[in-house]
Amino acid sequence: MNLFFMNLLNGISLGMLLFLISIGLTIIFGVLGVLNFAHGSLYMLGAYFCFQSVTLFHNFWLALLVAPVVVALIGGTIEMALLRPVYGRDISVQLLLTFGILLVLDDAVRLIWGSGYHIVDAPPLLNGVVHLYGFTYPVYSLFILVMGPLIGMGLWGFFRFTLWGKKIRAASMDREMAAGIGIHVNRLFTGVFMFGTWLAGIGGALASPLRAVGPSMGEKIIIESFIVVVIGGLGSFPGAFVGALILGIINAYGAQFLPRMTMALPYILLAIILITKPHGLFAAKS
Fold first, then answer.
1. Which domain does 157 fall in, by range?
2. Which of 110, 119, 231, 279 could form a cystine bridge with 283, CB 3.0-4.6 A?
3. What is the pTM of this model?
4. Number of domains composing the chain
5. Is residue 132 domain-resident?
């Protein structure tokens, strides 16, 4: 029973980390209509910049502030220089372009930091364990478990109640109408893309004390993020949350009960969703 509850916490913690990454992917697709295959590499950059900042400043909290901002600036450059010319083009063009960006970023990481793996220590405040009903659990994992819903509620409030959130929602519904009422759509799209990549950077920075920072860390996470987005429904905010939670719990309990099938379970779930609800669990009604 202790193992059951520990895996439940592991699944929720992993789900919250997936949510932080996939929500940026969801926002970018929902507003810009771009499936950003390079999102995993931007998550990876967040982890590397966090590692570099901790190495330089010996302060994880400062790194958690700096790393996502640097990733967002890189994201803004990518949007203005490369993505903006292909808006409205076939989705295959966007996928090929963002896949090319992924390859460039992966090679850039290898050139700058090498092919080895790096370790980021959790901050002293969160570097320990707590005793829960007969088992111990890392404090940092509980921190991730709490941060996911808090950031999710903050994002919901931002899109629901702030002027910028309403502008973003308006542009996602009708770009021409948004431009007609005075919204600078290109500038807004750049801001949204930077915001989505900032969330990817936060995910990478938060993940760095949980897993080794290496050049291949973005590949697995982008596949899982796409699965989350497809399960929840493309562009759906609550869908990203529920999809991430489902996938995290399936991965955790799969490792306990079906260890030989753990890697296949997310794809089995994806196939079931595509067959039964091809537009996702929270697809927008037309």
1. 2-118+153-276
2. 279
3. 0.92
4. 1
5. no
